[in-house]
Amino acid sequence: MVNIIQKFCKDFEILPINTSVILEFALDGITKWKGGEDHTVILSCSNRAVSLSTKKVIIEEGMSFKTTIQSSKVGTALIEISVDGKTNSKVQIKFSDSKDVFSKIKFDLLMSELKYVAPEVNSVQPHAEYASNYCMAASERGLSELLNDTTNFYAVERVTHKRKNQVSFSGKTAIDRGKQFQRLGYTEIIHHFKGYKVVNSKKDMIYKAKDESDAKTQYSNVKFDIIEFNATGKNVLAKHFENDVINKEIGYHVYYFTVTDGFHTLILIIDKFTDPCNPKYEIWDQHGLTSSYGLLSDIAEGIRRQTSWTFANSCLNRYLTNKTQYVDSTDTYLWKIKEKS
Question: Where in the chain is the domain with CATH 2.60.40.10?
């Protein structure tokens, strides 16, 4: 008997509702391009909420076939696959609707706003709305679109640049705003990470610079390696995200986060939708996509990189204001964003 091969990873065994997903299978064996034997493959599912685009194919050994699958309800579906009238394989799919996993449609709204803001901020002569430090505002504008909430998040009209509400950052840091999002029900998972160590020899290259020009040069030299992970830090940080996305349906995970104890605010996105078997991450700020992006397995290094340059920047600021008797915190805070229950 010819066996069915699943050509998708285990991540496809948990899917979002109301989303069409492609599943690929194949018949075991080697294709004979001439004189091969045809086999009839039938797919069925008893769950009435689940639809399959392909229910019958006639193919030879070694050939692949695909079906889209979609469910209108949360629950479990069992797909039975028969070959030439005999049940050959069964695949169990779980359909979920987690509040902290976002669809492609929601993700596109977030990205549209972040991509709109960046050129405005980067303009040689920006509108007054964008003239000051805009990292907190950019992050919240993205979240306001993602969550369809222009009341509780900083939000601005496009083109006119008029404010949509009275949200103010006066006297507040991103840490304050993250706590507010928690009170509002927009986050339940919070990570407070402290697993860095400052490389003092590189910090002192800025603190002990001979003049302002030298301090700026030293900042450029050390900005991405002025801090390192402590002995366990990298694994601990990476594990946070592994735990956050495991046993969740494919989709997008979004974090509001701040590095160097509130010095800079960013948006972190984990993409388990485009290629669920090889998830990726991206970090965005008011200037657009940062230098931190790539495979999810590299996410800890990406966050360290953002923390490093901002800590170096804080050291430069202390040099320029004659406050080198102090050293800023390297703490990182992340709030995993969710829709309200």
Answer: 4-96
pTM greater than 0.90 (yes/no):
yes
**Mean pLDDT estimate for the chain:** 96
In the prediction, which pLDDT does 27 show? Answer: 93
Q: Which helix (H) or strand (E) holds 66?
A: strand 64-71
Q: How far is CA 128 from CA 120, 125, 145, 161, in A?
A: 10, 9, 22, 9
Q: Which residues contact 326 (CB under 8 A, 6 or more apart)?
A: 318
- CATH number belonging to the domain at 4-96, selected among 3.10.129.10, 3.40.50.150, 2.60.40.10, 3.40.630.10: 2.60.40.10
pLDDT at 213: 98
Residue 37 burial (CB < 10 Å; 0-12/13-18/19+)? exposed
Write the pLDDT tens digit of every residue in 122-158.
999 999 999 999 999 999 999 999 999 999 999 999 9
How many whole angstroms separate alpha carbon 130 and alpha carbon 264? 16
Helix (H, G, I), strand (E, B) or coil at 46: coil
Q: Going edge to edge, which strands form the sheet with 187-193?
A: 187-193, 332-337, 252-259, 264-271, 280-285, 288-295
